[in-house]
Amino acid sequence: MLRVEHVTKTFGGLTALKDLSLAVSEGQIKSIIGPNGAGKTTLFNVISGFMAPEAGEIRLYDRTVTGLAPEKVAHAGIARTFQIVKPFNNLTVIENVLVGSLAVHGHPRVARERAREILDFIGMADKAEWPARKLTLEDLKRLELGRALATRPRLLLLDEVMAGLNPAEVDEFIELIRRIRKHGVTILLIEHIMHAIMSLSDEVLVLNYGVRIYEGDTRGAIKDAGVVEAYLGEEYLLA
Amino acid sequence: MTKRRLIPLLCVPVAVFFLTIPLYGGDYLLEMLIIAFWFAYLGSCWNIVGGYAGLLSLGHATFVGIGAYTSTLLFTYLGVTPWLGMFAGALLASLVGVVLGYLSFRFKVRGVYFSLITMASTEIVRLVFEHVDWLGSTIGIFVPAVKGAGGAALYQFGPKWPYYLVILAMTGGILWVTYLIEHSRLGYFLKAIKENEDAARSLGVSAVRYQIIAMAVSGFFIALGGTFYAQYRLYIRPDLVMGVHFSVEIVMGPIIGGWGTLLGPVLGSLVMTPLGESTRWLTEVIKTTFHVQGLTGLHMITYGLVLVLVVRFMPTGIVGLYLKRKELKREKGIAAR
Description:
The complex is a heterodimer of chains A (239) and B (337).
Chain A: E1 2-11, E2 14-24, E3 29-33, H1 40-47, E4 55-60, E5 63-64, H2 70-76, E6 78-80, H3 93-104, H4 108-122, H5 137-149, E7 155-159, H6 167-182, E8 186-190, H7 194-200, E9 203-208, E10 211-216, H8 218-223, H9 225-232, H10 234-238
Parallel strand pairs in A: 3-8, 3-9, 6-7, 7-8
Antiparallel strand pairs in A: 1-2, 1-4, 4-5, 9-10
Chain B: H1 2-24, H2 27-52, H3 61-78, H4 82-106, H5 111-131, E1 141-142, H6 161-182, H7 185-195, H8 197-202, H9 207-233, E2 235-236, H10 238-241, H11 243-257, H12 264-290, H13 298-313, H14 317-336
Antiparallel strand pairs in B: 1-2
């Protein structure tokens, strides 16, 4: 459904993404891993329209979304979360989600119903009337996810949604992401927690210095010598 | 639930109270309330852009000026009744708002820079009006007074009370409009953009589009306030309805009462105008008792002092302070349980 073709993005002299291509098929969960500075978040920014690439093309189904403004990309069916959560602090939890659902359904009453469903789905119905600024990190991450879901995306880009959570919370998120996929949403995931990647992903893409060094099934990745050297480290093989 | 029912019920005695003031209040009281409610109206219009969208415009006087001048020029040159002329002014102001908004937001002029751009633009407009003869230049324009019964059709009344009722109705109207916006798509989107523009855009909300819409709506309504002033005073001059000085006066009410809240601008203006008046009165008393000269700026100093104190001790204004108290109380209740 999503094809990224020969995308290059530079910041001054630094090449963040170099002639990068990847494909995500419908219903898949694909993870992007790689060391810090590999270009993972830049890739998300390019796909979601926050940055325009110098070269290359991004296609969703048959439509090119390259260089579209973020709001247009969202309407095309791609939603994202941010690595550093960006809640609407002075709005309540349900209002945060409502902004997402209002963007697709014009009618406030329909949108509010949709927002309630989302809150049930992410398990935050009891905190609907809380202002977002009072939430814990875990809840902020949930809200970030729920808000993105409210736009009814076909493709969801999750930028380290599990970072900073404790193991029990990570397991809850793994379950939640599985449920999202069951609803027919394709997921592209940036993550560092290997346990989450191993249990969720159908495929992984490994980036290093803006270049793809591996793309394929998860078992293959952990045995790949290049991946081990660039990212996982020798200890991972021994463990 | 009971509280939700209580608030509309409370509106009734408040409305009755203000509506019946002309029955017993003198001209002095009416004059003060007309000006207070005029600022309440202007502040509420500004609040749509300044409070809800969080765009600190210091150029809203431009729209007031456009409203005042359009209806007045249409009346003096073409004889069009200001009741119609005010809508021409409102549409023109709205258009100017769209252009100004487009130029600012499209090119990502934000925060302090937006304030500066609006400040500069309102000064430019004021200077143009002060130097073009057929616009009245610095002398201003007198609205031709109509004697007798035909006045009402031309938005002119002899006594003060009809003006009072008009501005009261306008204030009620803008509060209703604000309430509708607050609970609509536009309202939620504006608040979301204000809180975090990137997040709003990632959800499909076009920041530029909705901020421009806010400018258009706010400009439209505030211009009607310009016509009101022209008809009430029957005289306009660029430095009275335009420029930075007047823009700042518009913003005072919302900031003191609580910007981004429904009733903040009204409360703020109802506090500030009488305060300014009483300082003026006090100045007169001091002048005559002690035989001193040159205290003319005293009410401006008072304004400044109040502004400093409010920004220091209750930056979210009267309503903001109330809401914070309420939240603290609720939290204590939760903790006690």
